[in-house]
Structure prediction request, 87 residues.
Amino acid sequence: MANVNEADIRKKIKEFITESFLIGSDFDQIEDSDSFMENEIIDSTGVLELTSFIETEYGISIKDDEITPDNLDSIDRLVGFVERKLT
Prediction:
């Protein structure tokens, strides 16, 4: 995927999280480093939706052993993970 930068990835991920999990909530109350699980934003089913979105949106494959909090449990971690997968 050509010309995808960190700001674009961050924006798309925030839009997806807001539309899918924060319906009626204000995303501005959440910091990019806040844990999705600790803040009860995403549950285990949500993680599957999130990984499916990332795979479809960026044309990458996420292996089962990559579905970890280190990769997927905040906006910051997700952006870094997607950037690593795209390079």
